[in-house]
Recover the amino acids of this structure.
């Protein structure tokens, strides 16, 4: 019983750390790398699946797109808390992520702004607006990768 309540208490204390991406804590650099890479993969999948709508290959389902964009918006907040100091390791993040932290932060801010516009476009139900906003988000992914991700 005593063990159980200790577990419950420590669980309650720990969970906010995991709930808040900005202060995500990791025991080892490899854990942070795995976390952010996984977050990017899921975000990329959720973002990329809208491409068929944007390209006009499938009918525009405004409600489905809205739900999808809401997920992208949430997922887009996840990777950044896992770029703590000393977590370059064997990742594909360039040293510039840390040596030019202000530039990396600016690229994030630009991206998050583009996602907010994507969200507004999805709310509007206007496919042309969605298409333009989707392109802008994609461009902001690429801009950051060009500067801060190792080319493969
Ligand atoms: C502010 C910078 C930045 C933005 C914006 C950004 N990325 Fe990345 N992305 C990175 C960095 C840095 C890495 C390398 C991370 C690592 O290896 O630790 C990465 C890695 C990835 C990966 C590979 C994950 C893996 O398994 O190694 C994918 C996929 C990806 N990003 C997709 C996207 C998509 C899609 C967007 C836009 C919707 C996006 N990224 C926006 C910086 C960014």
């Amino acid at each position: 019983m005593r063990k159980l309540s200790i577990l419950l208490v420590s669980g309650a204390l720990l969970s906010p750390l995991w709930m808040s991406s900005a202060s995500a804590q990791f025991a080892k650099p490899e854990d942070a790398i795995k976390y952010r890479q996984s977050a990017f993969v899921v975000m990329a999948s959720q973002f990329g699946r809208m491409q068929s709508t944007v390209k006009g290959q499938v009918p525009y389902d405004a409600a489905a797109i809205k739900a999808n964009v809401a997920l992208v918006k949430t997922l887009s907040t996840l990777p950044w808390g896992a770029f703590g100091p000393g977590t370059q390791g064997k990742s594909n993040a360039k040293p510039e992520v840390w040596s030019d932290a202000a530039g990396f932060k600016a690229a994030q801010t630009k991206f998050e702004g583009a996602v907010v516009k994507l969200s507004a476009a999805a709310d509007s139900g206007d496919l042309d607006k969605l298409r333009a906003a989707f392109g802008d988000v994609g461009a902001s992914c690429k801009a950051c990768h060009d500067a801060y991700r190792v080319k493969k």
